[in-house]
Specification:
This protein has 255 residues and is α+β, with helices and mostly antiparallel strands. Helices cover 57% and strands 21% of the residues. A hairpin with a 3-residue loop joins β7 and β8 (223-233).
Length: 255
């Protein structure tokens, strides 16, 4: 019984002696999180003031955030009495296992670095990749965030993006639209083409140069397929496609 009382007393004394370390660690945690937040705000203001590319600044801010968090974790661990040298040794011993288990994450990080360096797209660009089309909202350390036309947010792994085909739809201001139109073979082909070209030339959203073209793509027994080619600004692409389909149907029905 005396031995149990001695052990209990010893544990209580150690716990009381350890309380200042816990309180100090909590204070460091609160102060550290505040410093990290302020550092992020200041860094963001500096990058904005110097007109640094938003894609690059977003990625750098993410790297700084995780770097500061790891540093704060090491400081708190040291304050709690955990030997930093032992901590580093443990991290070193676990690095191989972690590297093997997180191959995908490391690949995504490397992919993010490649995206920042080679800039296949930037924040605000509209891209098509991995079967998804949308506007780039942000580029993080491990993934790229886009929003599609249905306003759904999609996260694409950077590793996959950097090693696959990416179509940057908005990188050039101008875009050629190609719309397939089909009519009955009995329709007056030349008259259909002439009237459709008149409609295309009268639309102010369609560029006059290069000139719009209506070409015959395929002839079947009862159908004829045209390809309508026009140049437009990126912002007018969808509206012009709709216009072409509507006018083609109206002209075909009138013939």
């Amino acid at each position: 019984m005396e031995k149990f009382d001695h052990l209990l007393t010893s544990y209580i004394e150690n716990a009381i002696a350890y309380i200042p370390h816990i309180v100090t660690s909590l204070l460091i945690l609160g102060l550290g999180l505040w410093v990290i937040k302020m550092s992020q705000t200041i860094a963001r203001r500096i990058m904005t003031k110097r007109n640094i590319d938003p894609t690059f600044s977003s990625f750098i801010l993410d790297v700084l955030l995780w770097g500061f968090r790891i540093l704060l974790f090491v400081v708190i661990a040291s304050k709690l009495g955990i030997q930093t040298s032992s901590f580093v040794a443990i991290i070193g011993a676990m690095s191989l296992a972690i590297g093997l288990s997180l191959q995908g994450s490391l690949s995504n990080f490397a992919g993010g670095v490649l995206i920042i360096l080679f800039k296949p797209f930037r924040i605000g660009d509209i891209i098509e990749a991995q079967g998804e089309t949308g506007k780039v909202l942000s580029i993080h350390i491990f993934s790229t965030q886009i929003v599609n036309y249905q306003n759904s947010v999609i996260y694409l792994p950077n590793g996959v993006l950097s090693n696959s085909k990416i179509k940057n739809i908005s990188q050039n201001n101008l875009r050629r639209s190609e719309v397939l139109v089909q009519t009955n073979l009995t329709k007056n082909t030349n008259l259909f083409i002439d009237q459709l070209l008149e409609e295309l030339q009268s639309n102010d959203k369609i560029l006059s140069q290069p000139k719009p073209r209506v070409l015959i793509k395929e002839l079947l027994d009862t159908k004829i397929t045209y390809v309508v080619q026009v140049w437009v600004d990126n912002d007018n692409f969808t509206a012009v496609n709709s216009f072409i389909l509507l006018k083609s149907r109206e002209i075909s029905d009138a013939l």
